[in-house]
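Dissemination and training. As part of the outreach component of the grant, students in the summer workshop were shown how a complex can be specified as a set of sequence lines and then modelled as a single object. The example used during the hands-on session is reproduced here so that future cohorts can follow it. Participants entered these lines:
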Amino acid sequence: MEGGFDLAIDDINGAGGVKVGGVSYKLARDFCDDQSTGTAGIACGRRLGTLGYPMIMSCCSFTAIPVEAFNEQDKFILMASSAVPEFTTKGNKLVVRLIESTVDSVPNLVAQSIKFYDDKKLPSQRAVVMAVTASDLGNQWAGAFKTVWTAAGRQVVDVVPVDANSTDFTAQVGAALNKKPDVVALTTNCAPTGILVNQFVEQGFKGLFVFGTPCTDLAALKPLIKKPDALTNATFDISTWALSDQRVDALKATFQKRFGFPAEWTTGIAYDAVHLLVRSMEMAGTISDVKQIRATMPAAVKAMGKGSIMGYTGLDDVGNLQMHPPVGVYQDGKMIAVSASK
Amino acid sequence: METFFQTGVNGLTLGSSYALMAVGITLIFGVLNIPHIALPHVGLIGAMVMVTTMAVLGVSYWVALPVGVLVGMAVGVLTAKLVFGPLIHAPPLNGFIAAFGLMVFVESGTLLVWGPDPRAVSTGIDAVLVLGGVHIVMQRVVIVLLTLVALALLALVLRRTDIGMAMRAVTQDHHGAALVGIDRANIEMITLAIGSGLAAFSAGLAASVSFANPNIGIVLLVKSFAVVVVGGLGSVSGALIAAFLLGLIESYGAVYGSPTLVEFYALGLLLGVLVVRPRGLFGRLESIR
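and obtained this result:
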């Protein structure tokens, strides 16, 4: 995320800065390690909020939800890559969700996955076991998945909670396989996803995988998978970041050159967030009136058009950025989209 | 029946991943009387050096693993000289606080040097043996065997060498050991080197079936400490048995109980043993000074 911020700031300052009322302002950013926890997130939000920044971006629901309690009072726009629906349902006028909520993404993933399996005439794929991180997002995702999956006449045979920091899931994988699943759905970060896939395959699982957020970045996931064949019959809830596109590829290359390691999808989100903020400031004609800046954002998203790395197409009334991410599959060593959503 | 045996194999492989780290901690506790809570983090330095050695020099896992162990041992010597040595005559609480500080320092340092991203390593052994429907991952078999070999060597050192005898003497009574001419500081340094080497070996082996990642020290610490306390503080054989016991309980508990409770089993076992037998399954009362 930091890298995405820096690249966007370089772009904007390189082009003369933020231009408001005939004055050019140089853009700068601050950083606070929220440790992906509510407590540290609140401390960071309080500290950065008092410094007068118009926007704070949060990595995730862990910190976004508690910080949301005071961002209006402290007068800053809170952008977050939060998939928890509640983030934008509390009437907060200064929040922006940078990724789809589970309410939007999971039904699409399930529907497209089932269609993909049916089209490929893959073997039975009725019983799913879910490996879910013990978090708000994990629970929301699992709940949404279960609703749609069972509505399609299929069965959830087990939900295995996994600790995102754990290094060995042998016991959980053994328990999951004991339920004879046809499909394994994962909603873990890349490291535990890699371990889980490896251990499922090693213990004889030959079925299908469904990858929910947040590890759908093939560049991050592929090096962690011992037998890439495991990914062949898998579906991925991806964003445009995962697909090859001239602008996305250029940003990835710039990132790699500058920082020496590969960019991840969070880079694209941060990059877009900064551009959206600046575009909104310029259109609103202010760098400090956060209500005015936020009110201008729907128009700013439209103005960005195809300039958005993440493919944003609009911003709804409550703060959900609109996008139409596809469901992806891994084919011939790369990710391809099987269909657009909606 | 197939599930039963598969679960048993899974439990044994899980247990072996806890054993070495736990033995390192209990060995150090026995000699220094300090719960070395930074040991998993020290071990991870060895694992990260192993990964870096593979990446930079292009050598195989089996060449890089001993390099990581040697670096782990060197870090153990450094901690003896810089952290625990100066506290040799201080109360054990001081050593515990120093270990806590060391844990924070090493965790921050490794994150700074290597970053938070997990690193996968390949050992070249990726076969899975299927026996009567039970899947046996050969790399995990290798880990179990190497763990047993390392522990057998440790037992040999402890029982058959002068250094091992001196280590056991300091464990039993460091005043008495000093009276017969044993250099306590030197023995503590050797113990920290061996314990840290075991930790690095453990982290390096674990990386071959999961990843090397500076972030996971605290996870390793919780399980290792549960094993050490259940086995009996200072008891090497107790730690070994408790490690396999925990692995089997987690594995069978997940399949025949609830996978939701897997992370609870270690703490449940710990609490249960503390209530019924506070000195641990194989601990001696006098070893808790």
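The CA atoms of residues 73 and 152 of chain A lie 44 Å apart. Students were then asked to discuss how this feature might be tested experimentally.
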